[in-house]
């Protein structure tokens, strides 16, 4: 392809060695497609400067929209993927007047979010919409509602603000993911044993929903599994390790550990290895990075449930742009991203294969 030729779906297909139909499904998010393939297609489209025609029909070049995204900067692997997804969407929206301003808290801090939202309230004329990973399920509703009443659009991502006037939520079905985790733990333990529950923040909606789903299924299907906790580790590895020491001293017969964030997985995996308990105590949680994947391959972590952070970032901005610039209205309150279970058999990392 010369520098003057406009890239097409055929160009992308030839570059990746896949069919045009696969490219079409990836770009339009329809039909069945492997997640790694979908991501490769989106990244190649961005690299080549491909602009799908659908944008021309949904966005007006005469309109402009400044979007603010507020989410934690901690847990780099996860939130970096959200940022990558937003960047991919932003490149697709290039030339259509969409700009993005990212603002961060160190972690899911309600106080820090309130401070930043207060700053945004003082410059209402300088932004149009907000993408928010809410640090509390209800405490920010008054602020969110005030923004919406003032003509701003607010959507939530990763963690919802339940009952607010936000337009929509993009993220994992957290309650269902907790149910899946309980089924995995129950099968590993054959329905018997003592399981300790650990959560990052009791006030974060997503973390609490993961707990609730886990507890519900345990009571429904595994009555001989005894739950202890939950223990809140403030999404800090040091705090998590201290709690683990206390819990094991109180419950030396512990058979399983369930954590609601990657911090719990990493801290617990290290703790189990130090005490020679790897493979004897089952460990189930969420998300991945290179270290977590290695622990899974070694059998220290039994399973991790992924929540597709790339898609959370990508679709939050794309859906928001469609609403702002074309008047699109969501047909449902929540848009759930893909759930994938990472086990020893498929924890091979996200690197692309090279067959040459």
Automatic annotation (TrEMBL):
<dbReference type="GO" id="GO:0030246">
    <property type="term" value="F:carbohydrate binding"/>
</dbReference>
<protein>
    <submittedName>
        <fullName>LacI family DNA-binding transcriptional regulator</fullName>
    </submittedName>
</protein>
<dbReference type="Pfam" id="PF00356">
    <property type="entry name" value="LacI"/>
</dbReference>
<dbReference type="InterPro" id="IPR000843">
    <property type="entry name" value="HTH_LacI"/>
</dbReference>
<dbReference type="InterPro" id="IPR028082">
    <property type="entry name" value="Peripla_BP_I"/>
</dbReference>
<keyword id="KW-0238">DNA-binding</keyword>
<dbReference type="GO" id="GO:0006355">
    <property type="term" value="P:regulation of DNA-templated transcription"/>
</dbReference>
<dbReference type="Pfam" id="PF13407">
    <property type="entry name" value="Peripla_BP_4"/>
</dbReference>
<dbReference type="InterPro" id="IPR050555">
    <property type="entry name" value="Bact_Solute-Bind_Prot2"/>
</dbReference>
<dbReference type="GO" id="GO:0030288">
    <property type="term" value="C:outer membrane-bounded periplasmic space"/>
</dbReference>
<dbReference type="InterPro" id="IPR010982">
    <property type="entry name" value="Lambda_DNA-bd_dom_sf"/>
</dbReference>
<dbReference type="InterPro" id="IPR025997">
    <property type="entry name" value="SBP_2_dom"/>
</dbReference>
<dbReference type="GO" id="GO:0003677">
    <property type="term" value="F:DNA binding"/>
</dbReference>
<comment type="similarity">
    <text>Belongs to the bacterial solute-binding protein 2 family.</text>
</comment>
<feature type="domain" description="HTH lacI-type">
    <location>
        <begin position="7"/>
        <end position="61"/>
    </location>
</feature>
């Amino acid at each position: 392809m010369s520098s003057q030729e406009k890239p097409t779906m055929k160009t992308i297909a030839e570059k990746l060695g896949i069919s045009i139909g696969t490219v079409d499904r990836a770009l339009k998010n329809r039909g069945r497609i492997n997640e790694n393939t979908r991501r490769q297609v989106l990244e190649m489209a961005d690299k080549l400067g491909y602009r799908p025609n659908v944008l021309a029909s949904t966005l007006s070049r005469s309109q402009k929209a400044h979007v603010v995204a507020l989410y934690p900067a901690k847990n780099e692997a996860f939130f970096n993927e959200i940022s990558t997804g937003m960047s991919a969407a932003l490149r697709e929206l290039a030339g259509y007047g969409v700009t993005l301003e990212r603002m961060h808290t160190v972690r899911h801090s309600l106080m820090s979010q309130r401070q930043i939202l207060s700053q945004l309230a003082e410059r209402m004329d300088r932004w149009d919409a907000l993408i928010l990973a809410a640090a509390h399920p209800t405490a920010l509703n008054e602020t969110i509602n005030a923004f919406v009443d003032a003509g701003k659009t607010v959507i939530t991502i990763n963690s919802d603000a339940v009952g607010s006037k936000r337009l929509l939520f993009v993220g994992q079905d957290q309650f269902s993911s907790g149910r899946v985790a309980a089924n995995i733990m129950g099968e590993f333990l054959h329905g018997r044993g003592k399981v300790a529950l650990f959560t990052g923040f009791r006030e974060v909606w997503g973390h609490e929903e993961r707990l609730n789903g886990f507890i519900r299924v345990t009571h429904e299907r595994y009555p001989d599994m005894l739950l202890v906790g939950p223990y809140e580790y403030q999404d800090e590895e040091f705090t998590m390790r201290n709690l683990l020491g206390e819990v094991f001293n109180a419950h030396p017969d512990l058979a399983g550990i369930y954590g609601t964030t990657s911090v719990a997985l990493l801290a617990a995996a290290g703790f189990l290895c130090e005490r020679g308990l790897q493979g004897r105590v089952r460990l189930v949680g969420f998300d991945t990075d290179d270290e977590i994947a290695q622990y899974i391959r070694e059998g220290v972590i039994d399973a991790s449930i992924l929540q597709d952070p790339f898609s959370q970032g990508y679709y939050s901005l794309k859906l928001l742009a469609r609403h702002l610039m074309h008047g699109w209205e969501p047909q449902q309150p929540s848009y759930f991203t893909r759930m994938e279970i990472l086990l020893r058999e498929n924890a091979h990392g996200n690197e692309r294969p090279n067959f040459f």
